[in-house]
Write a sequence for this structure.
């Protein structure tokens, strides 16, 4: 019988918790500024009151105030003692698992409270900064005590439960345009949006929203010009910024003279000579100027040996000229050297005192006396050849007489 009475008492107590606790929670929730304050039955006789799935933004600071009161004003014979609660930040959809400290930096950690006659009202403030974008349940888990009354009364176990978001409302801030004054060279390409960015505390990077409202830059003329920018964030706040762009004169560079590339040459008498063959000209500013080379002097006579001169001149677009003179040497293409001919009888030593030897010496002297053409004297070639022929005939005749 006692077991049946205890079971009926327990069921009656739970019914009291469900039907008497909930209306008070709903009333308190309706008085808060946030619409997602909720309560839920985590398990029989154990409740959560607070905000679920709150989106926390990285770097933002939050502040919540949690208050709750236990009904311990009755006599020991008809009240529940040892009522427990757990307040703070919890992992979403859990049964009271604390949110990890890596996700937030707190000024106060989660708390555990137990209600009794000398401590029944609790108030806690949780202020924290999100270290990352994450979600959390913020509020209090409420549970009944372990001692059940023998005669339950129709009263609340927990009352005056409130969870209030006291996070200061942030006033919208203006975006920031990052742009600096610039100096460019004359005729340099200019893009007014190059290296210009915009950021917003709420929206982040809004560079793509930048608009150029004024651009007076003329890169063909030196001077100081204005460029104006504007950008608007999602809070409809607009920021304007102006910069100065200075265009500097292009530095004048000294014109370099062209260079003629030609070398001294050697040719033979009768060779063809082309004064421009192998001759080139280059210029630092104009490049290849070979086609503009002029021969201003040419004394070459390819029919006569000697040393001659050829002079070249070229002028670039800056009216600077270069001049170069080379030597052309014309040489003879045939040189003949005739050694004296010594005649010796077969098997008989030479004797200069004999009449025969005297005759041979006379013939040698005649050969030496022959005219030898000089280098380059083409007119003497046939005479030399004729003399050689006569000498050969004379030597042959002499040998025949000597052998008789």
């Amino acid at each position: 019988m006692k077991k049946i009475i205890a079971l009926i008492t327990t069921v009656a107590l739970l019914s009291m918790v469900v039907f008497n606790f909930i209306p008070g929670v709903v009333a308190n929730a309706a008085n808060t500024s946030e619409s997602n304050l909720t309560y839920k039955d985590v398990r029989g006789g154990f409740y959560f009151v607070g905000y679920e799935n709150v989106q926390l933004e990285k770097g933002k600071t939050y502040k919540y105030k949690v208050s709750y009161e236990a009904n311990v004003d009755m006599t020991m014979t008809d009240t529940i003692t040892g009522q427990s609660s757990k307040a703070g930040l919890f992992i979403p959809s859990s049964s009271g698992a604390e949110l990890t400290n890596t996700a937030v930096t707190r000024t106060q950690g989660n708390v555990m409270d137990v209600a009794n006659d000398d401590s029944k009202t609790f108030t806690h403030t949780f202020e924290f900064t999100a270290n990352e974008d994450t979600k959390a349940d913020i509020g209090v888990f409420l549970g009944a005590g372990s001692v059940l009354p023998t005669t339950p009364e129709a009263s609340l176990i927990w009352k005056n439960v409130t969870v209030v978001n006291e996070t200061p409302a942030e006033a919208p801030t203006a975006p920031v345009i990052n742009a600096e004054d610039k100096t460019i060279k004359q005729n340099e390409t200019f893009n007014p949006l190059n290296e210009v960015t915009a950021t917003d505390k709420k929206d982040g990077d809004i560079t793509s929203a930048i608009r150029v409202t004024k651009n007076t830059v003329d890169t063909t003329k030196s001077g100081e010009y204005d460029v104006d920018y504007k950008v608007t964030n999602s809070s409809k706040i607009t920021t304007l910024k102006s910069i100065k762009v200075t265009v500097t004169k292009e530095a004048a560079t000294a014109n370099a003279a062209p260079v003629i590339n030609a070398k001294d040459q050697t040719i033979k008498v009768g060779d063809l000579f082309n004064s421009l063959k192998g001759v080139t000209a280059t210029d630092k500013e104009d490049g290849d100027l070979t086609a503009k080379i002029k021969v201003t002097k040419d004394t070459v006579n390819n029919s006569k040996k000697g040393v001659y001169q050829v002079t070249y001149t070229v002028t670039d677009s800056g009216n600077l000229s270069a001049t170069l003179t080379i030597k052309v040497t014309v040489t003879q293409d045939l040189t003949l050297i005739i050694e004296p001919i010594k005649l010796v009888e077969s098997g008989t030593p030479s004797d200069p005192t004999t009449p025969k030897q005297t005759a041979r010496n006379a013939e040698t002297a005649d050969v030496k006396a022959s005219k030898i053409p000089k280098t380059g004297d083409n007119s003497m070639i046939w005479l030399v050849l004729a003399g050689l022929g006569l000498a050969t005939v004379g030597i042959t005749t002499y040998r025949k007489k000597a052998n008789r």
Q: What stands out?
A: Residues 1-36, 146-154, 344-376 have pLDDT under 50 and may be disordered. The helical segments are 2-30, 355-368, 381-403. The two ends are 183 Å apart (CA to CA). The chain has four domains: 2-165, 176-248, 259-331, 355-403.
